[in-house]
Amino acid sequence: MTEKSIHLPDLSGRAVVITGANSGLGLEAAKILAGRGARVVLAVRDTAKGEEAVREVPGETEVRRLDLADLASIREFARGWKGDLELLINNAGLMAIPRSRTKDGFETQFGVNHLGHFALTNLLLEHVTGRVVTVSSGLHAGATGIHFDDVNLERGYTPYRAYNQSKLANLLFTLELQRRLEEAGSPVLAVASHPGYAATNLQGRTEKVWEDRFMGVLTRLVAQSAFAGALPTIYAATQDVPGAAYAGPTGLFMRGAPGLVRRSAAAQDTAAARRLWELSEEMTGASFPL
């Protein structure tokens, strides 16, 4: 599977922001889109790593600092944006880490994976002319719903419980964002993707030795490449898909060619999507601007 199997439009001169683009899926997506002429901004927490990574990306690029665990950093990034933005790709994420808090006091996985991107999207939305692509996970199906009465998981935190909830939140966010865009008469699309099981540095951060070793072995045996894992994001960003579409690998074991895939029943709950949006507004202070 190569990006040549996806018909990619000419993106010459069009701006693209990719969060977490200094490695893994984000870096691979940056390479592909820059190769089609896009002006790619790598939005990263560690700019030194970003500057090192950007050497691998062809064409016009820029590295800007963005810490999704800090609402002040998100607002600063958004204030600095000028001009149109063809694609906002909400790619950065954390997976199955020990309990911790963001600078603003949110459970870190929910705070970074969902709330940070929620705030960033709303703060940049007036600039977006094309699509907002949010990267979720097949593990969203492990969450039966958002824990609205305990969204920071004060009672019963486990690394994967928090991760699964944050990835479900990504899909509910996409669903409600698309509804609001349509209601506002905006041509912008909100879509989502998941990489399947891709070999990136996302895995193996539980700080449990045997669990991390097991994940390392499993990744080497089963996972597809980061490049292949980035293709569903590219598919969602560039192909003729409906609003709120969800793209992912269409083969067995979360591998294979990208296409539209199914999501869990919980990820289709429009009432939960609206409730999550309202909660996210309260927590971040960011709201739909259109």
Can you walk me through this structure?
It is a single chain. By secondary structure, this protein is α/β, with parallel strands linked by helices. The protein has one domain (10-282): NAD(P)-binding Rossmann-like Domain (Rossmann fold), CATH 3.40.50.720. The protein has 8 helices and 8 strands, in the order E-H-E-H-E-H-E-H-E-H-E-H-H-E-E-H. It has helices at 24-35, 47-53, 71-79, 108-124, 159-183, 209-222, 226-238, 270-284, and strands at 15-19, 39-44, 61-65, 85-90, 128-135, 189-193, 246-249, 258-260. An 8-stranded mixed sheet has the order 3-2-1-4-5-6-7-8, sandwiched between helices. Strand 5 (128-135), helix 5 and strand 6 form a beta-alpha-beta unit. It starts with 14 loop residues before the first strand and ends in a 6-residue tail after the last helix. The mean pLDDT is 92.
How many structural units, i.e. domains?
1
Order of helices and strands: EHEHEHEHEHEHHEEH
The name of the CATH topology is Rossmann fold
Q: Count all strands and give the number.
A: 8
Largest sheet: 8 strands, mixed
Overall spatial form: globular
Which CATH top level class fits?
Alpha Beta
Helix content: 25-40%
Mean pLDDT rating? 92
Q: Quickly give the structural class.
A: alpha/beta
Return the CATH architecture: 3-Layer(aba) Sandwich
